[in-house]
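Tutorial, part two.
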Amino acid sequence: MTFRSIRFRFIKPLTFLALLSGLLFGCTNEKEIEKTVARVLSENPEILTDAIRNNSLAFVEAIQDAAQNAREEMIQQRELDERQKFEDAFENPLAPVIREDEAIRGNPDAPLVLVEYSDFECSFCRRGYMTVMELLDRYEGQIQFIYKHLPLNFHENAMLAAQYYESLRLQSDELAHQFHDQVFEQHERIRNGKSFFDSIAQSIGADMGKLEEKLNSQEVLSRIEEDKREAAQFGMQGTPGFILNGVPVRGAMPADHFVEIVNELESRGKVNL
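Running the prediction step on this input gives:
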C-alpha cells in the first residue's frame, strides 16, 4: 500500500468527520450543512462508496426501509388528499344541468340525484350500469338517475350508440331506457355496431324511420356535445363518471361507495330520506 493510498484512506475520512462535527456543533443552518456535505461528497465520492462497500447489508436494509417509509407516506398523503377532495365536494357541490326533457329514470322528484357520464362501449361503464341498477333498486322512490354521454374517441361504436340513445329518446324516454339496458346486457355484441343497435331498436318497438331521420341530426349531435362539455367542465376525462347530489365519483366504484356518500349526505343534513 502506498503512502498516498494510506493518506487518502485515513486523512479524508478524518477530515470529513471533522467537517461534520463543525457543522453539527457549530452555528450553521441546515441548508449550509446540506450544501457543504454535498460539496465534500462530490469532491470525495470514495467516502460514500467505501462506506457502502464496507456496510453493504446495512445499506440495502436502509434503502428498503426508506422505500417502505416513502410508500407509507405516499399512501397517507393520498388518503389525506382524497379526504380533502371529499370534504370539498360536500361543501362545494357540483351542479350538472338537468334539462326539462331529460330522460329521468326513477322518481323525478326524488331527493337523490345521480348523474352519469358514460360511454356505451366502455367495459367499466358496464360495471357502472350494474351499480346504477343496484342503487335504483336499493333507493327505489328516493333516487332519480340521468344518463349523459361521454363517448371516448378510441371506442369505435361509442358515438353511434350515443346517437341511437338520443334519437330513441326523442320518441320516448322508455325506448331510450330500454336501449341503454340492452346495450349493456348484451355488451359483447357492441362490436357489431349499427347492426346490433338496429336489432335492439327493432326489438323494443322503435319507429325505425323516425330513428334514422334523427340519428345524424344536429339536434342529436348537439345534445351529445353538451354532455361532453359538461363532463369536461367537471374534470370527467375517463368513464364512467358520476355526480351524486353534487359529489363526484370517478370510475366504476361499487354500490357501497355511493351508499357511504348517501349516509354522509344524511349525516350533514343535506338530504332527507
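Strands lie at 105-106, 112-118, 143-149, 241-244, 247-250. In part three we will examine how such features are distributed along the chain.
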